[in-house]
Amino acid sequence: MRIKLLFIASLATIFFSFHLTAQDLKITNLRFEYKTNPIGMDELHPRFSWELQSPHRDVMQSAWHIRVAENDQDLITGKNLVWDSQKISSDKSIQIDYKGIALQSRKRYYWQVKIWDNKGNETPWSESQYWEMGLLSPDDWQAQWIQSVVKENITKPQPANLLHKSFKIDNPIRAARLYITSLGLYEASINGKRVGNQLFTPGWTSYKNRLQYQTYDVTNLIQNGNNGLGVTLGDGWYRGNIGWVTSRNFYGDKLALLVQLEITYQNGTVEIVKSDDSWKSSTGPIVSSDIYDGEIYDARLEQDWTNPGFNDKGWEGVKIINHSKDILISPAGPPVKRAEEVIPVDILRTPKGETVYDFGQNMVGWVRLQIEGKTGQTITLHHAEVLDKAGNFYTDNLRSASAEIQYTLKGDGPEVYEPHFTFMGFRYVKVEGIENPAIENLTGIVIHSDMTPTGKFECSDELINQLQHNILWGQKGNFLDVPTDCPQRDERLGWTGDAQAFASTAAYNMDVASFFSKWLQDLATDQTEDGMVPWVIPNVLSQSNGGSTGWADAATIIPWNIYKAYGDKRLLERQYPSMKSWVKYMETNTGEDGLWNTGFHFGDWLFYSKKDDNDGQSAVTDKYLLAQAFFAYSTDLLRKTAEVLGESDDAKYYAGLFEKVKEMFGKEYLTPNGRLVSSSQTAYVLALQFDLLPENMRQQAADRLVQNIERYNNHITTGFLGTPYICEVLTANGYVDKAYMLLEQKSYPSWLYPVTMGATTIWERWDGIKPDSTFQNPGMNSFNHYAYGAIGNWMYTTVAGINPDEKNPGYKHIIIKPQPGGTLTSATASYHSMHGNIISGWKITGDTITLNVEIPSNTTATILLPQSRIENVKESEHELSTVLDGIHSASQQGNSVMVEAGSGKYQFIYKISK
Ligand code: BGC
């Protein structure tokens, strides 16, 4: 039965719109390149996005009009516009290209937008927004690269470098901007005040090719008369310990600074204070700092050296160095910031007699120390993720990272200290040197890239809610300027495999679009000539460490995921050469036999395996089967990308290549009867997910997958490569019940097993802590590794039911398809998309299901009501079969009702049809 409601619905629309007023339609969340009123931009072809808000259903934008001016006055009066789009008939409200005159260095531009909707409403002009350009050309930099001349021993962590300059201001100022970057990490202060609140600046990129600079509005920090500008430099990623096999000085062995303070006086003249040979250098209280090893700080060495009038006579000079300015870029991604504070839940005395603070949460950042004591007294803080079986402080899994803070008191009253150029992954802090430790002495400071939270998931099972919590904290802990594998041991690298596995889950929890855009540019930059993608990005390992299947495919998988979630076609355009060259690499390395079966591959990393495996229980998947599978998948994503970009010849080529790769997969890894040569869950999952099987063998592959799961007593045995897709594949092939079984499984190996063991983040291994409470091999046992958190994607898409539609990316069209199951009686997710907030939540009471759905204005949705008969469904108390505002059509599709709807809030209630 299909009920066509379109015509009547539009009559209803006309009726309803009669009562509307313009205030019903609002423009909110105006963004410029994913940012609100940013400064220091270098995007020459920026894009605008906004959201529509309306209390009504079925609201679509019918037109938009943007205008841009160089000042607010011109904007408001519509004069001297640098861009006037005119009224454009379009329902596009995200990623709209700026098409005005060429943008100039330092200039601030003001913009506003007004829109019209399909109900005859027109908004007033929005509040004015702005963006400001940074320094677009190397010639804009008058500053010179400078270095401290204080003697150093570059073989170990060094005292932070202090660089200082005094200057005088005699006239009233209108504005001041600080443009700054460094080799190493920097923190700048003016007149005793820290500049901005960004951490780990200038961030981590492929330093030799791309170096970010930051722009700060420091107008309020400058004063009349004497001023002091000081910059502290720490070793950081640049020359500190970094790399898988710990090594120092990867990018260089000396720190350096480039800074330009531009002061505009009220009379319009500009004065520039810049790094040059007039600066002074010294060292201070940071005796050493290192990302892995922590920080040693001696507060007795503090001086008010950035205060106005500080006398730097005794300091040494600086050295000017030659370092490129052509590589300078403005940050595309969000800065790292302090995100939240955690109060310790307990102070423990361990069996060994040590004093240990418990923060109740495995977190990433550091602790703020608040203390009063004697001068010269030293406090030591050690960080650990877990206590051992006996309850003692355990750090073996940090490997060589000492993650230790030493603070020596100056001793003249209350002292407050936070480290500067290091971070730790920890739940427990062991303290030495505090006489009567109190809760107030330590506060946990959580830091991560400042991504806007966008998703929430909740259901009737508390253990699954804790799993969601753990996934989210895995993300908080490992999105620190680059997506890292782990935050605690001597690693913390941008592992590509982990990132691709988790990217789509990450995109639900937080806005990761610009975070990944930045990192993907580094991926493209560090990719070798022949297309090989390094294992880690930025690449701090050897040049030859790359090309592992499922890792290198980050080059294709992540851009596609970001495109789907954010409608970011530009990203696809920019990554296209990198995507192509990765596929080319695989093609080149394919033998005469049509198989990619050479090279080193990590394989299905950390799959279930048994020690002394006598009965073949370990879930091993042939590495070259994996390679052929991901080769096919990347090729298919490239084909889709070519289609989106209108590269039709390429699209044809990659469609053909996909078929060839698939055919050879079949010849080599599939028996004529449909068995895969690796009888692992991962093999069947990937073959189904990546469409590598002939149609007539799909069902039996799904059946074999289920048999395999049953052989392990309904446990998951996949590693990093199979885990992200297993529940999706089961669901798509008629086994949603099995997917729920895996999700709800509590014994090892499973997602909930760590939860039952008290985990507060996702573990690297299914059994980081074994059932007998002993630990896995400390050589590789992180308790904060997000890869297995990739189940989050299925929780949003299938348990709660929020799905993107890749044909209408950025959630312009939404697929709401919840599939209740297992023992759950309710689940709800919300996701704040580029177009606005989406909600899908269901609850089962007796034999009745209630589904609440919210669809943002200017989008449409296909809503699939699980286990429903159309004649039993009520929407907001009306029969679905009657004319309903916002609902375009409803039809029975098997055991579901399919509703095509416009924006608005809907509540469907019906008796479950078995
Ligand atoms: C990392 C990973 C990474 C792996 C490569 C490990 O040391 O922590 O998560 O993907 O190496 O197999």
Give helix % range.
10-25%
Structural class: alpha+beta
Number of strands: 48
Average of the residue pLDDT scores: 96
Number of helices: 16
The percentage of residues in β strands lies in 25-35%
* Uncertain spans: 1-20
Largest sheet entry: 10 strands, mixed
Spatial gap, N to C terminus: 19 Å
Query: Any idea what the shape is?
Result: globular
Bound small molecules, deduplicated? beta-D-glucopyranose
Structural commentary:
This protein is an alpha+beta fold and 914 residues long. It is 22% helix and 29% strand. It contains 16 helices and 48 strands. The strands form eleven sheets. Strands 21, 22, 25, 26, 27, 28, 31, 32, 33 and 34 form a ten-stranded mixed β-sheet that branches. It has a seven-stranded antiparallel β-sheet with strand order 35-40-41-42-48-44-45. α5 (496-509) packs parallel to α16, α8 packs across α9 (623-644) and α11 packs antiparallel against α12. It is globular, with a radius of gyration of 29 Å. Mean pLDDT is 96; it is low at 1-20. The chain binds beta-D-glucopyranose. The site of beta-D-glucopyranose has 10 residues, from α5.
